[in-house]
Design goal:
The chain folds into two domains: about 5-115, no CATH class; about 115-280, 3-Layer(aba) Sandwich (Rossmann fold). It is about 35% helix and about 15% strand. It is built from ten helices and eleven strands. It has helices at about 20-35, 60, 70-75, 100-110, 115-130, 155-160, 175-185, 215-230, 240-250, 270-275, and strands at about 5-10, 40-45, 65, 80-85, 110-115, 135-140, 170-175, 190-195, 235-240, 255-260, 280. The strands form three sheets. A six-stranded parallel sheet has the order 8-7-6-9-10-11, sandwiched between helices. It has a three-stranded parallel sheet with strand order 2-1-4, with helices on one face. The longest helix has 18 residues, at about 20-35. The radius of gyration is 19 Å and the shape is globular.
Amino acid sequence: MRANDGVCSVEIANRYVAFFGQMNWCLFIFQYCECKGLYPDIGLTGDSYLDCARGPNWLEYYFHVLTPITKEDIGKRVRYTKKISDFKEMGSPIAPEMTVREDGRILHKYLSQRSNIDSLVEAFWRDSVVDSPVLGVHFRGTDKSSEAPRVSWRHCLTVVKNYLCNHNAVFVASDEEEFIEFMKKSITELPVIFREDHYRSRGSGELPVFLGKGGGYEKGEDALVNCLLLAKCSTLVRTTSFLSAWASIFNPDLKVILLNKPYDNRLWYPEREILRRPGTEYVPEL
């Protein structure tokens, strides 16, 4: 970084960590740069979200990276780029103590969503939401049982029904198509809305969506737009997931009802921070 004249240049090439897992790494680097007075230069090059026609860095497909100096100035300064493929290779920024409110500030200091992403979010909300407030529901299925106990659909439905009052609609997001169909059929008290994602699995045991076939850009768009829609809800009933955990970073005032928690050796940020927040309700399945 000294040789780069104050630029912290990192390339992350990983295809086995999903969208918001890698966004976590970016957040750690941004916090490190703010603390040390450095300029971040991050490239996300793993092929899960890559679209060669859009360029080699998929972070820039979805966000503008905001720095006090231009992209051209950064290019002139960088002599060395740290290339990593695993979380542990990050070194000193790894897993710092952070809060979702502070991280929301850091996130918006360094990144802003591209206008096409904001347009997708606002168009869906305008066309689909009958009236606020909206109850959000996120169920992370497929392979997530390797990191946290799987929650039954019935338990999720029971908890959701306990929170229907004082809401005017239910927004559901999931990587499992059949879960969305189940919620749509089971909730008759309020309108149930969901986004027509490009890709979903048909159930548990399948490959996670981001490792399956399909366009890289579209997979990332599905993840980011659903997260931003969950962040617009008033209350969020969710299973453990980086995607819906990041809804609290985009909206630190979001009320969270968590249905499971990661195993102790998988209790990473931001889940561990959300669990200990005073407003979080933990409602595990007995």
